[in-house]
Amino acid sequence: MYALLDRAYSSLRGMTDFEPDFGIVLGSGLSSVADRMDVRCRIPYAEIDGMPVSTVQGHTGVLLLGTFGGAKVAVMQGRVHYYETGNAALSVLPVRLLIRMGAKAVILTNAAGGVDPSYDTGDIMLIRDHISLAPNPLVGANDDRYGPRFPDMTDAYDPQLRKTAESAAQDLGIALKEGVYIQFTGPSFETAAEVAMARALGADAVGMSTAIEAVAARHMGAKVLGFSFISNKACGLNDEPLSHLDVQKESARVADKLASLIEETVRRAEV
Ligand code: HPA
Predict the structure, then answer these.
(1) Would you say 213 and 76 are in contact if contact means Cβ atoms under 8 Å apart?
(2) N or C, fewer C-beta in 10 Å, the chain?
């Protein structure tokens, strides 16, 4: 996997010498966040040697380089979920690439189901911590050049960046929830019993990404900030059946709120 990362990095460096301050990963339906940035360069994943390509509707699969909130950013518009390949280490390769390019912090975003019964469609949750029910992406041989065998996960979601996001949200008049994200493997949505279990475990929002990416980013020593956009109430808290199309539609509708929050957070953050 590290050889594949080296290959993707060399391939990318054949196209650009851009060094971002922040890496940003955009989740389902949140691609329009990229509309606000000043894009200098667009690189389809397919042009990067060794890069896994997303197969999910709403995940564009383009790397955008440019400026946002006055900072240099590299934005992965679309991610590769664990359920697409069954390979957690491969799924986190794009995040590793962002950090290898120079990003000191990564901002991970996702669409998620609200597990806390008080959460409503359209809410944004700042991720305080996570529970991962997906395989750990660090399983397998470790390459010490990338990070330690046993990375610490205390304060995995950077407390200082979280404070910055909270104050940005307050000044923008955006009500921000704060809670624990739980990653299931997907791709089926959870059962009502699994959602009840997630709640009992201490989760506030449920999705199929992000936690394994945060693990890989911490492994490489990058700071992590995470936002869940609540696209629906999770199964059992909602009378409607869940559909990916609804997730995408709801995300697109409120993506602008999240975009302005990320923009203002990046503007204020020091990494
Ligand atoms: N469950 C899992 N992933 C999701 C959901 C959900 O309810 N909504 C958006 N992504």
Answers:
(1) no
(2) C
Per-residue pLDDT band at 12 (split at 50, 70, 90)? very high
When pLDDT is averaged across residues 64-88 and rounded to a whole number, the result is: 94
- Determine the distance separating the centroid of ligand 1 and the alpha carbon of 114, expressed in angstroms: 8
Query: 247 in ligand 1 pocket by Cβ < 6 Å?
Result: yes
User: C-alpha 271: how far from its chain's center?
Assistant: 18
Q: Which atom of ligand 1 is nearest to the CA of 110?
A: 10
DSSP 3-state percent helix, strand, coil across the chain (nearest 5): 35, 25, 40
Mean pLDDT of 53-57: 74
* β-sheet bridge partners, residue 106: 23, 224
- Determine whether 257 is exposed, middle or buried from the number of CB atoms within 10 Å of its CB (0-12, 13-18, 19+): middle
Cα separation, 214 vs 225, in Å, equals: 9
Please say if 28 is a catalytic residue. Answer: yes
